[in-house]
Amino acid sequence: MCAIRVRVVWVRFPAARLNNMIILAIETSCDETGISFINAEQARNGWKVEVKANELLSQIKTHAQYGGVFPMLAKREHAKNLIPLLKNALAKANLIYKEIGANLNTREISRILEREPDLFKLFMEYIPTINSPKIDAITVTYGPGLEPALWVGINFAKALSSAWNIPIIPANHMEGHIISALLTQDEFSKSTFQVSKPAFPALALLISGGHTELILMEEWGRYRMIGRTRDDAVGEAFDKVARILGLPYPGGPEISRLADLWRENSRFSAYMKDNHELLKLPRPMINSDDFDFSFSGLKTAVLYKIKKIPAPSKEIVSAIAVEFENAATEVLVAKARKAIEHFNVRTLIISGGVSANNFIRKSFAELGVEMDVAVLIPPPALATDNAIMIALAGMAEGLGMSRHPDEIRAVGNEELGDQ
Ligand code: KG4
Ligand code: ZN
After folding, report:
1. In the CATH scheme, what is the homologous superfamily, with its name and number, of domain 20-181+383-398?
2. Cα 354 to Cα 213: distance, rounded to the nearest angstrom
3. Alpha-carbon torsion angle 306, 311, 314, 315, nearest 10
4. Which residues are near ligand 2, the ion (C-beta closer than 5 Å)?
5. Which residues of 376-412 are buried (b: 16+ CB within 10 A; e: fewer)?
6. What does the domain layout of the chain look like in residue ranges?
7. Does the beta carbon of 250 sit less than 6 angstroms from any atom of ligand 1?
8. Which residue puts its alpha carbon closest to atom 1 of ligand 1?
9. Integer distance in angstroms from the first to the last C-alpha of the chain?
10. Backbone angles phi, psi at 58, to 5 degrees
């Protein structure tokens, strides 16, 4: 879980684009190190995207002992993993055609990687031994995320940009989550996708470890935040509730697994009915007059409940997991329903790590049918952090948005509006 907050009103102006781009994407905003290569081609209503390589290394095990993500540890792990992942990705994408080195400006690279000595060492051992790959852009997450973690990725992108003379496009992590919901897989090839522009207005509900936001997209590239959590993000609540229930880190998938299992149990309905009063949790802000959320009280309610039960059985823990999922989902659905009505929304996008949750996916699919709105949710593997989503955000930005490397900086908190 990455505790990060953003206040977003990002407006991007149309930029000059290449019709066809090969993009290297780098993701290091939290506890996943991701490297991908995509080939993006402009199509009639969007893009055709071929994923040439997608490497992802999770640091979950490293952080598990601390029960949360430690920024400096995340930074160290990213620094260790970036070169090996790049090496694999280049090979898989077939981008190494000759084993001759690029002509590097070592002094500049050592300046760029001044604060990343481990990465510098690995970089200098490998990059001078290979050719510059034929790619059009490097895209890297600039935020939101954990600043030390973001900086490793950004500095790595800058060093590669210097070594290979390739422009950098800064990518917004949240935009990546949104666009990854617009992918549909080609029926003939597992690695080829279509990215279609949704029917507007579209509403994106971003639910992750650091975010719970409702973003209105009235047109392509225009985002307006209409609601957000006032305290914990929903993924953060999943993780904290899991910890309270004594479940392993990261808690979201674990709560989801337990709750799914319990719902399938033959005694489930009767047990939930008989213990209704004991289990009942609040639905914070469900009727509030805005599109905001609050999940910290829900987490505290679980804490009080569990404290009153000496030696809770597996059944009670599973039943609380279900009731917690019900409560969180009901609030999310209620706020989305209200926003759909208010803004005449035609497409509902659900994305971010928590959208991997089965019960949440099912509940939003039902809402879509009820309200006659198209519901787009990325496949679970693309719902959590990865580098394909960053490549897609870079693709949407286009080369017209590439920046001078010195202008790119990590944005950890609350300042994405100016980007
Ligand atoms: O988007 P993401 O991978 O990283 C951030 O940007 O935060 O989201 C991670 C969050 C974690 O809080 C994790 O517990 C939650 O997503 N998560 C889930 C599930 N899978 C991941 N929460 C509920 N159910 C899941 N199946
Ligand atoms: Zn994320």
Report:
1. ATPase, nucleotide binding domain (3.30.420.40)
2. 12
3. -70
4. 208, 385
5. bbbeeebbbbbbbbbbbbbbbbbbebbeebeebebbb
6. 20-181+383-398, 196-377
7. yes
8. 353
9. 24
10. -90, 140
> What's the longest Cα–Cα distance across the chain?
72
What's this model's pTM, rounded to 2 decimal places? 0.90
Q: Which amino acid is at 133?
A: P
Q: Which residue lies with its CA nearest to atom 2 of ligand 1?
A: 353
Measured from the CB, is residue 356 less than 6 Å from ligand 1? yes
- 326-373 pLDDT, tens digit per residue, is 999 999 999 999 999 999 999 999 999 999 999 999 999 999 999 999
Residue 261 to residue 371: CA distance in whole angstroms? 29
For the stretch 7-58, pLDDT in tens is: 334 444 344 456 789 999 999 999 999 999 999 998 877 899 999 999 999 9
Q: Residue 291 corresponds to which tokens in the numbers above?
A: 């599109």
Q: How far apart are CA 248 and CA 262, in angstroms?
A: 18
d(CA 76, CA 62): 11
Pick the CATH number of 196-377 from 3.10.420.10, 3.40.30.10, 1.10.10.10, 3.30.420.40: 3.30.420.40
Q: Can you tell me whether residue 116 is helix, strand or coil?
A: coil
Cα-to-centroid distance, 269 and ligand 2 (Å): 34
Q: How confident is the model at residue 418 (pLDDT cuts 50, 70, 90)?
A: very low
**Token pair belonging to 15:** 């930029």
What are the DSSP calls for 9-36, one per residue? --B-------SEEEEEEEE-SSSEEEEE
Residue keyed to tokens 């990060």: 4
Q: Please tell me the distance between residue 238's alpha carbon and the centre of ligand 2 in angstroms.
A: 15
Closest CA to 85 of 353, 352, 383, 387: 387
Q: Is 83 exposed, middle or buried (0-12, 13-18, 19+ CB in 10 A)?
A: buried
